[in-house]
Fold each of these.
Amino acid sequence: MQLLPRFKVRRLDWGGAAYLVAVVAALLAAWNSGVSLYYLLFGGMASLFLLSFFMSKGAVKRLTLEREAPYAVQRDESFGIVVRIHNTSRMLPAASLRIELADKPLTVAGFCGSIPPARTAQLRLTRVYERRGVYRLPDTVVATSFPFGLISARRAFADTREVVVYPRVLSARTSVIEQAGGVGELPRVFQGGGDEFFSLREYVPGDDPRQIAWRVSARTQTLLVKELEHQTTRRIVFAFDSRRALHVDGFEERFEDAIELIASLAVTLLNRQYAVSVVTASLSLPEGEGKAHELKLLEMLARLEPADEGAEDAFSRALPLAGARRVCVLLVSANPAEWGLPQAAGRVLDPREVIRA
């Protein structure tokens, strides 16, 4: 994605400030003494200063920039941002380029020694987000003090791209879920005629010849067929009370912990062929299975924000599902006072009962 330039800034470096003082001193010496040599010296120094001004300006003016970044990343996961800088000049190189990000001004994130005319340089910057959410990537700033290190010309390139930061997903044991009321009574929902290997047995007339394990049969000199079992799914609904509780100490951190708990359990269950849905005070995710549904769930949790205290209770929204067969409702709250307490829709999950790696 090619970025659009936002602004250009030129400022004196420390060396440039010292050099400017020397230029003024040469001018004062020429005025006071009237010696032609001092005027000659001042003219040469001033010319060098002006040349540095225009050359550094032209160096960044001839650049275009493209940037690539992943659509989504995990919290605390280091990811790369690919920056491509193209020198549009057909004659002059661009040299001594510093790459900065606008949210950390004057901090060099990358460096490019030289880009020949009509060529492109590629750099990889590294970034980490410590909290889940949706972030707009900061502007990329290209700066150079070329050629004399006196004046630094800077040009910022804007980008409207967003990066979705998923909550952290940890390995979780589901024993606390399987022991919840009703889970053990959930019947299996069969899908198709079976597609997971279960065992081998001897061939019986009438068996489907396509299920014969020819290699094993040749090795054992006995005709064997593969037995397949059905995939099974069970339905889990996470009801998360996402209303803001101002009376809870450290609510923001407890809210993030609750989201990570849901993400960890939901991903684990999806990998075990459960059908998972999520109900909150402000957002809902319909039931689904598989990797595609996992990404939808993580994006929803990444964008979830605390709802107003007066919003509808997610536990009440899940109540019609609690009595339905083949559905298990798991209640999650960021308020420790509710952990382990029975509700109309079930018992609130206590995070301390869930073992996570």
Amino acid sequence: MPMILGIDTSAKTASAAICADGKIIAQTQLNTRLTHSQTALPMVQALLDCATVDIADIDCFAVSAGPGSFTGLRIGITAVKSICFTLNKPCAAVSTLEALARNMTGMDAVVCAAMDARCRQVYTALFEISDNGANFSRLTPDEAISVEELEGRLKNIDKKIIFVGDGAELCYNIMKESVENIAIAPPMLINQTGYGVCMAAEAAIEKGETLSAAELMPKYLRLPQAERERMAKLKAEQ
């Protein structure tokens, strides 16, 4: 398998990893008050330096393309586009939710990736992992839905459910009395990781789903808040 460098800047935690053959060569994770525009590229350079890997030896650059923070997504995507344009390398745009779920590789469970979208809504998708991680399958598409709607879906699942993502605690606290057999991912795996991005990219590469730098774009599940507010104002004025 190719050597992949994966970047995630979709939420408060920024992470990057270098992986090959399903194994981590190096990984770093930051959750500081600095913006991703300040940390993303220095983090990638430090990762390459510490792993003694030349950037030209990376076969594919992967990035979480959404859902997530509009600004955060643009920072990560811009970084990967710039690198791939310069080096003429392919890239992979992966679902942030799938990358989160792949943190749970090795578990036998339904993984509910949930990112807090505010106002009791979450960006979410369900995945099933079985045979000690040998089988990974998507059960639902990436969506922006209310916590209550997600709760109704999870009540019909009779397998262990693990929440992962910055919406995990929100969902667990609301559903712990109504949904059976639910748990939260351990602290070191609950947030986005470069490893998860790399594993999602590895699956995309196997399917021939890589992109050129020019084709790489963010994938939003809903309009930015400013645009939603503008549309609501225009509707009210009509």
Amino acid sequence: MRWNIYKKERYGKSRLFGSIGFMLIAIILARHLDDYTNGLHYLLFAIGLTAFFAFWLTHNNPNFTPSSEENEPFNLLHVSFFWIALFLMQVSFGAFYNFFTIYETDHHISLETTSYLWAFGVICEIVLFYFQAPIFKAFYALKFSTL
């Protein structure tokens, strides 16, 4: 039996891996972020690792075929609204993350402690995502409040 992450009931369970990654990066970066160049090195490393992993996935996957004459070529405009939505989502979260971090550090809370506060928030998010489907099934009225 194959684990299907695309079912609505399993979205929260598959989403939690991104939350765990964010929590680990926040804690690790807070310990090593004495200078802004350290953050840039981590960013460049993450970009390189992501590019390598994407290349490895597409290069070694027998099901991945580049567009040919019989297939319609990939067009970025077909998914432009998706990319715009992702960009706006990142911009909105980035402002919130920055505001919270600046607010906490201006009130003399260390960057490491602030990262632990982020980790606590992410743990709450993981619990919510994991139990999201059963909660929505139990409380059907909650579905209407999220529309």
